[in-house]
Specification:
alpha/beta, seven-stranded mixed beta sheet, four-stranded antiparallel beta sheet
């Protein structure tokens, strides 16, 4: 999972001209709370699904299906991206689904997928084109999922997210958080994505991750080859992403300040890649 830095799509890219490798200071990545800017996915959105969707879809079902299937009020997908958790939630539950995704370039494939669904399924999902605090959702769900999201939030933005999640959940609602790396990598790692054919073109890419101060720098290189992969490179793109390590204990402490407590492991229906916490019976900020 995240600890190997090869198993999860990375979010929150730094916007840059597409042909130029970048070294962008952190100040350009975030606003005062470290939240992502809204349309920094224009390059990655093209390659995200073709290179990673099949593996990510299987992971989503394994990590969250059990809790989502037991939802009785609603499911909240925080950082919905292209919609893997959102679509799984529609299929595995009978409740309303709220998909929160501020980036237009990632929402576009999500909306295309929703448009292909029967009208009855589409009626159960609402897409919020903003951050969770801007959506101002109150008591809309009893299950919330943060998949491929928390690792790429600046620590200040991460801590600011938890109160908004608590507000959106009803008392005793469950939050499932895919854990970020617990520590910085000791050395640079490289992962090559399996190449994928689309007609006469082959899409490929690799990911290199290394420590950079208190962050993890992850550089993606994408390419498209002609003649089924045997021809020349037709296009190349490079982007850099940042992640911030945080241990399970650290996240439990942050969430505890907002009324969450870990779900006992004997009842947890996830693996160690996910932290499951439950909001207290008084709900957010002591309100039922």
């Amino acid at each position: 999972m995240y600890t190997s830095l090869v198993d999860a799509p990375i979010k929150t890219p730094i916007k840059t001209p597409i042909e130029t490798p970048i070294e962008t200071p952190i100040e350009t990545l975030t606003d005062d709370l470290g939240r992502e800017r809204q349309d920094d996915y224009a390059i990655s959105a093209e390659f995200y699904d073709i290179l990673q969707a099949e593996r990510d879809e299987a992971r989503v079902r394994r990590l969250y299906r059990g809790h989502v299937g037991s939802a009785r009020l609603g499911v909240l997908d925080v950082g919905a991206g292209t919609g893997r958790v959102t679509l799984m939630s529609l299929m595995e539950s009978r409740v309303a689904v709220h998909a929160v995704e501020p980036a237009r370039s990632m929402r576009s494939p999500l909306m295309t997928r929703l448009a292909a669904l029967p009208a009855g399924l589409r009626m159960r999902v609402t897409v919020h084109p903003c951050t969770l605090d801007e959506a101002a959702l109150r008591g809309v769900a009893d299950v919330a999922v943060c998949h491929n999201t928390i690792a790429c939030l600046h620590p200040a933005a991460r801590r600011a997210l938890w109160p908004a999640v608590a507000e959106a959940l009803v008392p005793e609602g469950v939050l499932l958080v895919q854990l970020p790396p617990a520590r910085l990598p000791l050395r640079e790692t490289t992962y090559v994505f399996p190449a994928q054919r689309v007609g006469q073109h082959e899409y490929g890419g690799l990911m290199r991750s290394s420590a950079d101060g208190n962050r993890i720098r992850t550089r993606f290189c994408y390419w498209v080859r002609g003649e089924g992969g045997a021809g020349d490179v037709l296009r190349e793109h490079t982007e850099t992403f940042w992640m911030w390590p945080a241990s399970r204990a650290e996240l439990i402490g942050e969430l505890g300040e907002c009324g969450f407590a870990p779900v006992p492991e004997r009842t947890e229906r996830t693996d160690r890649a996910v932290l499951a916490v439950r909001l207290g019976p008084m709900g957010a900020f002591g309100q039922r």
